[in-house]
């Protein structure tokens, strides 16, 4: 007997990744009704509800399809007035969730007077430029007069979670807020035209996930199809075999950063070339800021360290890009004595660092990456990106920036000048 064949949809990615969803984060005091509101929006129990203060400990994120707005994700957080030995840790995690918020939803009980912590939160939300809405919970009970006066000057909706009173109005307001957000650029935005031919170079090595492609490769391929382009997807070992067979010159060759050197050697020197990581540096962060950060490589400050930030968690390979390849190249080309640190998030104290090298950020939201870049700018710490660092290390700058005219000119005039050969 033959084994049962899987259904056509089995194993396919049928949901939008969390990193590509608009993130709506619920904040408020303990027992403000945040978890109850989450359940009312989802119309099922997705968060634990209890009269016991401090029921929500860690942020809980759930994907949701908001009709009229598309894929979003709601994050429920611990109360900002949490107490006890773990209270400060929970509050800190709730504050970190704010860095990922595209929209902040402050849940405040209509039955209790305003709290100074709520005012402080709204001040922080406004300072960060995050669109927000206030959900006045327990609307089915007698309101506190001071809270009503406080709400008068704020964008708010009254809700009663058990009966779902006001929930439809709330979600409608959220749809309008989502629509007001600047859309995140797609990987190929402004780089290709209908009918263009692309070459995507995708190494299949020990670090590649079994049976699938990594997210930047999938998103770039889908973007090419959405733009009515054709794409040849090939491993780096076969590029030299297939490239001469192409009917005409590709608009762009896009490679995994780790194959930069080999790919550049196998295509004509005037063929436009970049990497998935550089595409995502623009999509998720600020490509110009990453380019400026490369200047630290030619004048690295004495006594400083390098921090490599990788947003996702995965099983480390013997030749891991973050912990092995990048430090090795840096030590060969810049300074063999500079120590390296590795983290998923930025530490509180950034003073030890002369440079941060950040991943493409494909598994986190654009707002989360930009919040990190803003923190680094405030601390005066330069930052660059995996793909840009590897292109620099292999002497492929400014070539890998040619598809991006502004950043290309920026590199040539402010950072690195012309082509350099390193490795």
From TrEMBL:
PANTHER family per record: TRANSLATION INITIATION FACTOR IF-2, TRNA MODIFICATION GTPASE GTPBP3
UniProt GO BP: tRNA methylation; tRNA wobble uridine modification
UniProt domain Hydrogen maturase F dimerization: residue ranges: 188-285
Residue ranges of every copy of the G domain listed in the record: 23-135
GO MF entries: GTP binding
Record domain Hydrogen maturase F tetramerization: where: 290-403
One Pfam family linked to the record: HydF_dimer
Entry-linked CDD domains: Era_like
NCBIfam families: GTP_HydF (TIGR03918), small_GTP (TIGR00231)
Cellular component terms (Gene Ontology): cytoplasm
Organism, as annotated: Winmispira thermophila (strain ATCC 49972 / DSM 6192 / RI 19.B1) (Spirochaeta thermophila)
Name of the protein in its database record: Small GTP-binding protein
Domain of life: Bacteria
